[in-house]
Write a structure and sequence with these properties.
4 copies of one chain form a homotetramer. Chain A has 214 residues and is mainly α. Helix content of chain A is 70%, strand content 0%. In chain A, helix 1 packs across helix 2, helix 4 packs parallel to helix 7 and helix 5 runs antiparallel to helix 9. The N and C termini of chain A lie far apart (71 Å). The interface between C and D is large, with 51 and 51 residues. Chain C binds a DNA duplex (21 and 21 nucleotides) through helix 3.
DNA sequence: GATGAATGAGAGTTCATTCAT
DNA sequence: AATGAATGAACTCTCATTCAT
């Protein structure tokens, strides 16, 4: 592996460690769920001993929390930016959000997080609540805001913006689930971007004002 | 024991027992998840001792399996019937399926099952697979079949039936999740039947052929 | 061991169990101290598994508490009775208390408790406080009360009753310690009753009023 | 390092280090007991890292041993000197020893040591033995020697010198305990010197020959 | 059919101790 | 001389499961 030197048994990557732990934990949680994952598993997966984990996080639960907090924040920020960027252009804004979702869905490890949070919602309600506030509520607001604007601009039929927002988000969210929970059970799913495209298309047709009326 | 003796004041409904266990288990699994539920909890909830549980089911996992199998089968059958009933009438068929979903969503205990299955999919892949085959795949087929027929009848635009099916199902499925995982975090959700109505409306508009062209 | 029957592997002594556990725990705590005693040790010492201990006590600390509470209460009551019995007779009252101490000191397991409590006082201050209130303070009061009465009756010199009480109690208390902490290091200590006798004798001489003045 | 260079602003007192460790350890042991004290605690208390502790002592137990050995030796020597000084004067000798005890009792950190040793006697019998030999036995001998001489000189009644010695020492020893184990539970104890005074007074009265017989 | 009692096999967590630097 | 990083071995405690009755 290293041809030039006898490689010290132990390399120092001190700042990277917590992140490595979180990576390993995410892998394990994804594969077996939170409860069925043993600290031992996480430890081994990042080449540490069980005890060393406790140098970085005070408990298993803390790892879970840190995982969610650490990985979700950047997502949220990116999404927010995307929407803000497409301010007046309603369809552009929707595309931006959708595009952002595609980026998430394309990254297995990112895509797994929401699933994990929802799966463990019963045991960690505060985490679910934080996720909801940070991601679900915000995304819903952004989208229904855009839809509202679309209606005002005469682009869309006068639909309930919130319900419509769900119509757009739900297929995307479910797609994440299917990819993971039913991996291998469905005939080669389409790629996230295809799914996004089809979803947006149907959605826009569904809410479109009748432009064809002369 | 003695068929001629004066009726006992209270009969032990021995046949109901396994079902009582499953009920209790479902409650507990819903509330805390599979892993965090102790056999003790289930036992107490149905007025038995831990040991007695093992008279009816050989293991905790078996309870989970029995739960899913026992509760989902009837659902599936009912749904199937609903679709078959509305054979030629495409919109009627869709309405039937949607109506069926409303019935599920209105029953907390039924609605919880899919959530549970998906949450534990990582740990019990075969259960997830069974659920998928029995429910997801079947519903998708039924719906995309109807959509295909709708297209053939000129009612719908030529969309991809499978994708369209997901567009219809996903908002409903997500609604189940929201009601549970985010209970209390969202401003009083609409009732399942309202959600179903709005979803179907948007969906039909989205896939409708342009009837307004003269 | 049992020639008449194949003896069931497990005999049922359900009510005795908690007490057996406490006995075993006391033995172990005496021998190695609280911290160095493993639940495993206690379990084995009373023929149970570690897990079974938790059927009877919710934690190691709870065992310690129960031990102190359960064993000390009877002692306290007995002592109290002894004093009350010798109401007017000052010397008789002192003898009664001393006699009571002899009974404690003669029973290794009883004698060990105070030592244990004091040893672990730093870690379990509330237990130490309870012990102090229940035993130390009460005994001090009883004795200094008797001494006060002795002074009033002209039997004793006018000494500080509290200080005098300590003069009487301290040698007895220390004797308990020596027997245990320095077991084997001192040339065969005298028996508790001898120690008590000598201590009381010296004490009475020390506080006696000068009767020999004509 | 360089004897001619401009004096470093602050020298590292390297020789003091082991003693600083022992100080810190004593504080911690006093506060929480030996077992409940973590090396981490000791390290932080003397501004070192855990690992550095092992530069000075090979183990936690070694710290305890060094503590006892290092702090007790000087005590013992001082006491011995005190007694030897008051050779013929029996009461003077007793006063010297008592005075020595007062000095110990006035110094919280010194007073804590015997308590610590006795508390951990079960786990460290050799330390207890060393303490016994070095302190208890010696003090007892010194005192009973003095008492014997007092009897020979006709100052004291013919009591058992050993028992009498205990009568004198025990209240003092117990006072140490009370101050610590029951800190705050007893109404402001008297100062060590007062306690010593009262104890000696009662003791002398108790063993005094009847001087008042004409 | 039912249970109180019991347990084996771990779980997460802690800590004295070591080691590369 | 000193330490941050790491760990092995132990700890307390839990829980699905069993068994004698």
């Amino acid at each position: 592996m290293n041809r030039t030197a006898p490689l010290p048994r132990w390399r120092r990557r001190p700042d990277a460690r917590p992140d490595e732990v979180l990576d390993a934990a995410l892998d394990a949680f994804m594969a077996h769920g939170y409860a069925a994952t043993r600290m031992e598993d996480v430890a081994r997966a990042c080449g540490l001993s069980k005890a060393a984990l406790y140098l970085y996080f005070p408990s298993k639960e803390a790892i879970f929390r840190a995982l969610v907090a650490g990985r979700l924040q950047p997502l949220r920020d990116a999404a927010e930016t995307a929407v803000a960027a497409a301010n007046e252009d309603v369809v552009g804004g929707l595309r931006a959000i959708i595009g952002f979702w595609v980026k998430v869905a394309d990254d297995e490890r990112l895509a797994a997080l929401p699933r994990l949070v929802l799966s463990e919602a019963a045991q960690f309600p505060e985490i679910a609540a934080a996720y909801h506030e940070m991601m679900v509520a915000r995304a819903s607001q952004a989208i229904s805001g855009l839809i509202g604007r679309g209606i005002a601009q005469g682009l869309f039929r006068p639909v309930d913006p919130e319900a419509a927002a769900r119509m757009l988000l739900a297929p995307l969210a479910m797609d994440l689930w299917r990819r993971n929970a039913f991996a291998g059970l469905e005939p080669a799913s389409r790629s996230p971007s295809e799914v996004a495209e089809m979803t947006l298309d149907l959605f826009l047709k569904g809410v479109a004002a009748r432009q064809d009326r002369p």
